[in-house]
Design a protein that fits this description.
By secondary structure, this protein is mainly alpha-helical. It has one domain. It has five helices and no strands.
Length: 101
């Protein structure tokens, strides 16, 4: 795999933001009753929670679009490898920031 030391800092920060947004989506989703329980009338739909999830998903999609539209990708020869390296760097940066907190 090529060396992707030239990944822009702002692109890494965007991927960290995406990971945080994705975790928020999962957290909200985990709080919601399952659709199976709702259909079986064992739980009620959480309209407020569903609205919160829709907003979080919208933010995650906005970040996804921003990542994919980043000018770096036009200069990248092996996008998949760069994407995987970006993911690795972002996870490391996120873990480091959580360890500092």
């Amino acid at each position: 795999m090529a060396d992707y030391a030239d990944l822009p800092k702002d692109l890494i920060e965007l991927k960290v933001a995406w990971l945080q947004a994705d975790a928020l989506c999962q957290e909200i989703s985990d709080r919601l009753p399952s659709n199976i329980d709702v259909v079986a009338l064992e739980a009620e739909r959480d309209e407020e929670g569903l609205a919160e999830l829709a907003e979080a998903r919208s933010e995650r999609l906005r970040i996804t679009d921003e990542i994919n539209a980043h000018p770096y990708w036009a200069t990248c020869e092996h996008r998949y490898d760069a994407w995987m390296h970006l993911n690795k760097l972002a996870k490391e940066a996120l873990a480091a920031s959580q360890n500092q907190a």
